[in-house]
Amino acid sequence: MSETPVRVRFAPSPTGKLHVGGARTAIYNWAFARANHGTFILRIDDTDPERSTEENTQIILRAMRWLGLDWDEGPEVGGNYGPYKQTERAQMYRDAAQRLWDEGKAYPCFCTPEQLAADRAEAQARKDPFQGYQRRCRDLDPEEARHRIAAGEPYVLRIKVPDDRGDVVVRDAVHGDVTFAARELDDFVIQRTDGTPTYNFATVVDDAAMGITHVIRGDDHLSNTPRQVIVYEALGAPVPTFAHISMILGADGKKLSKRHGATNVEEYRDAGYLSDAFVNYLALLGWSLDGETTIIPRDVLASQFSLEHVSKNPATFDPKKLDWIQAEYMRSMSDAEFADEVMLPELHEAGLVEGGVEYDEAWIDALAAIVKPRTKFPADVVTVAAPVFATAETLVYDEKSVEKGLAKEGMGAVLDAAREALAGLEAWDAAAIDAALEPLPEALDLKKRLVFQAVRVAVCGNMVSPPLGETMALVGREDCLARIDRARAMAL
Ligand code: GLU
To answer: Measuring CA to CA, which residue among 412, 413, 437 is closest to residue 424?
Structure first.
């Protein structure tokens, strides 16, 4: 581990909701900070005033909280390096730009867009491989520049890429050393005519001021990095280690987008994915623990994450694998965890339980035990548990199930026999109920499947409900008998 304490940041632009690609970047930054006992900073890059909104910022913060990516510094939590929104740091960018100007490392440029376009056309015409800014204002007499500014002429500030800079080698933890020829970097703009900073400038001013040691972000920013290195050097700040992570692709090999389905974190939250499962899945898009382990709990991720195991190859978003991981997380919950975290909230929302106090813990646990194996997504809870919460009056009978399971010759006799066997039971629990129904097929000379199907449809209204004995135990004897009576009319 390096001696300087690790400081990383996730810097979303609130121009939209939190995309799965952004979420993965956030997860890697968070996990890297945690694994190195470092600091995870959240910074809102809201310098694009047209497209940034406070609403998006709030959506991003909510998504981060849902993902469980707690930040040590940033909005709502503060910190010693704030403010953590770029719009609140405008003065810092102006000061930094002014300093570079004073030191001769930046200069004003008065070229109009028309001038720049004409220069580019000329460079093209003479087949100059370099078609960027032709450094027209680089050697302008400072006195003349001052006059033009005083006269109100608009100008931008450009950085002066040193003549002798040579190649810029970006040290990247994922891609290795990536070399860019300095002559391909024009003297790029750091401050626009309206005084606002450009992305490459603001980002570096902030990363330097915030003491960022590792910049982990999408590799769409790799091409910006040599410019950012030039800014670090001009500011006299140490250059951090970079880690540019691959794009996330859809199954067709194209960049993940709406066409592939849900792309925003909140859509996954609303669809009922468990935060832990979702984080586990996203972490695996480009990183692996050991090349084979798929289920990686959050605490393992937070202690074992390393940049060495991040792949530079694009990752493919596979909804089936996400669903498989979701099912694994559901399955590995204890009944009590499932009851508290998934089942009761769903039942509560559906108005089926009020405060949860009307049922004792054993009843809730017994319900969780039969509902959990049938729940892939939280929303399944209500469907699976509906027969338990219904009454003989409110139970909804599924038409197809009635047709297949009840409205058949001989099923009336099945219900009559079942009623009698159940009415006489001493104890009302799953084992006793199963034992009471067990002899019926033989006694009635009917297939076991037909007998149990008829009772199931009578009591649960459908053919896919949880195990019969357990369900009937939860429903209670009186209501079970009343349901059988009601169903009797439908049986032949
Ligand atoms: N706001 C930038 C983005 O969302 C941050 C890029 C960076 O991490 O430097 O792409």
So the answer is: 437
Cα distances (angstroms) measured from residue 27 to each of 42, 69, 161, 329: 12, 7, 35, 18
Answer yes or no: do 272 and 372 share one domain. no
Domain that holds residue 337: 333-385
Q: Of ligand 1's atoms, which has the minimum distance to the CA of residue 203?
A: 9
Please work out, in degrees rounded to the nearest 5, the angle formed at the alpha carbon of residue 376 by the alpha carbons of 371 and 377: 100
Q: Is 320 known to sit in a ligand binding site?
A: no
Active site residue ranges: 258
The backbone torsions φ and ψ at residue 316, rounded to the nearest 5 degrees and listed phi first, read: -105, 125
Cβ of 207 less than 6 Å from ligand 1: no
Q: Is 25 in the pocket of ligand 1 (CB under 6 A)?
A: no
Q: Are 8 and 41 in contact (CB under 8 A)?
A: yes
**Can you state the percent helix, strand and coil of the chain, rounding each to 5?**
50, 10, 40
pTM of the model as a whole: 0.88
CA of residue 195 to ligand 1 center, whole Å: 20
Compute CA distances 417 → 7, 132, 431, 485, whole Å: 72, 90, 18, 12
Question: Could you read off the pLDDT tens digit of each residue along the chain, which spans 492 residues?
Answer: 457 899 999 999 999 999 999 999 999 999 999 999 999 999 999 988 889 999 999 999 999 999 999 999 999 999 999 999 999 999 999 999 999 999 999 999 999 999 999 999 999 999 988 888 999 999 999 999 999 999 999 999 999 999 989 999 999 999 999 999 887 889 999 999 999 999 999 999 999 999 999 999 999 999 999 999 999 999 999 999 999 999 999 999 999 988 888 899 999 999 999 999 999 999 999 999 999 999 999 999 999 999 999 999 999 999 999 999 999 999 999 999 999 999 999 999 998 887 545 788 888 999 999 999 999 999 999 988 989 999 999 999 999 999 999 999 999 999 999 999 999 999 999 999 999 999 999 999 999 999 999 999 999 999 877 899 999 999 999 999 999 999 999 988
Ligand-binding annotation for 17, yes or no, is no
Q: Both 195 and 294 in a single domain?
A: no
The response to whether residue 240 sits with its C-beta less than 6 Å from ligand 1 reads no
CA of 96 to the centre of ligand 1 (A): 20
Identify whether 339 is part of a domain.
yes
Tell me the CA–centroid distance for residue 94 and ligand 1, in Å. Answer: 20
CATH code for the domain of 448: 1.10.10.350
Where a domain ends, among 182, 210, 245?
A: 245
Task: Give, using CA atoms, the residue closest to atom 5 of ligand 1.
Answer: 11
Cβ of residue 217 lying under 6 Å from some atom of ligand 1:
yes
460 annotated ligand binder: no
Whether residue 240 sits in one domain with residue 100: yes
Structural domain contains residue 113: yes
